[in-house]
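Title: Comparing notes on inverse folding

I've been comparing how different people in this forum approach sequence design from structure. To keep things fair, I'm posting one structure and asking everyone to reply with a full sequence. Here's the target:
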C-alpha cells in the first residue's frame, strides 16, 4: 500500500541517473496498478459469481505479479522490492492454507503495519525514511539544497524525522483499521472501505507534510519541495 511507498522508492532508485523523475506520476502509476486494478478485478470476479476467498486471492496476486515483472525487467532485486515480495508471498501462502476470506482481507494489514514499523525504525538510522526516499526523486538542484540543509540545519533534520514519524503512524493506523474492518464488516464491503481508509490516511499525512514543509521552507528562506 495499498499504494506501496517502498515500491515507489525502489522505482525511483532504479531510474537512470540524470533522468527527471516525477513523484506525482510514480504515485499515480502505483495507485492505479496496486490499488485500483486489484479492486476492480475483485468486484468484477464477484459479479461473475466467483466466491469471496478466490476473488480476493486472485485480485491480490496482481501486485505480486507486478513486482516479479519488475525484478525480471531490471534483472536485479532492490531491498525494498525483496521486502515487498516476502510479505506478499508469505501472506498469500497463509491465505491459501486457511481458505478464510477474512484472513485474506486482514493480510493487507500485515503489509501496512510492517511498512509503518519500518518507517519508524528509520528514525534511529542515519537518514530517516522521508529524507532518504524523497531526495532520490528530487531535481538535482533541489536535492543538493536538501543535502546542505541536512548537514547544516538541525531544524531541517528534526522536520524530516517528524514527518517520517507521521507517515509511519499513518500506516499503523491504517493497519489497525483494516483488521477491525476485516473481522467486523461484511466481506464484500471491506476491499472498498479499506481502500477508502488508506486514501484518507494518505491525504491527511500528505497535507500535514506539505503544511509543515511550507513553514519550514519559509524559515529556511527556500521554496518548499515536499
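Reply #1:
Here's my take.
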Amino acid at each position: 500500500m495499498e499504494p506501496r511507498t517502498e515500491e515507489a522508492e525502489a522505482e525511483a532508485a532504479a531510474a537512470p541517473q540524470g533522468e527527471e523523475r516525477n513523484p506525482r506520476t510514480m504515485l499515480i502509476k502505483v495507485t492505479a496498478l496496486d490499488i485500483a486494478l486489484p479492486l476492480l478485478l475483485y468486484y468484477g470476479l464477484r459479479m461473475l459469481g466467483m466466491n469471496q476467498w478466490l476473488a480476493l486471492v486472485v485480485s491480490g496476486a496482481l501486485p505480486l505479479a507486478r513486482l516479479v515483472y519488475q525484478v525480471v525487467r531490471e534483472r536485479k532485486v532492490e531491498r525494498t522490492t525483496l521486502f515487498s515480495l516476502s510479505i506478499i508471498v508469505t501472506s498469500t501462502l497463509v491465505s491459501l492454507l486457511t481458505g478464510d476470506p477474512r484472513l485474506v482481507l486482514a493480510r493487507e494489514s500485515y503489509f501496512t503495519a510492517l511498512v509503518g514499523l519500518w518507517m519508524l525504525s528509520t528514525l534511529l538510522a542515519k537518514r530517516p525514511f522521508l529524507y532518504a526516499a524523497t531526495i532520490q526523486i528530487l531535481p538535482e538542484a533541489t536535492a543538493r539544497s536538501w543535502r546542505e540543509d541536512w548537514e547544516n540545519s538541525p531544524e531541517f533534520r528534526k522536520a524530516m524525522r517528524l514527518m517520517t514519524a507521521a507517515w509511519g503512524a499513518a500506516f499503523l493506523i491504517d493497519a489497525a483499521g483494516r483488521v477491525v474492518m476485516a473481522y467486523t464488516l461484511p466481506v464484500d464491503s471491506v476491499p472498498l472501505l479499506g481502500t477508502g481508509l488508506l486514501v484518507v490516511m494518505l491525504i491527511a499525512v500528505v497535507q500535514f507534510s506539505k503544511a509543515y514543509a511550507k513553514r519550514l521552507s519559509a524559515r529556511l528562506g527556500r521554496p518548499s519541495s515536499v
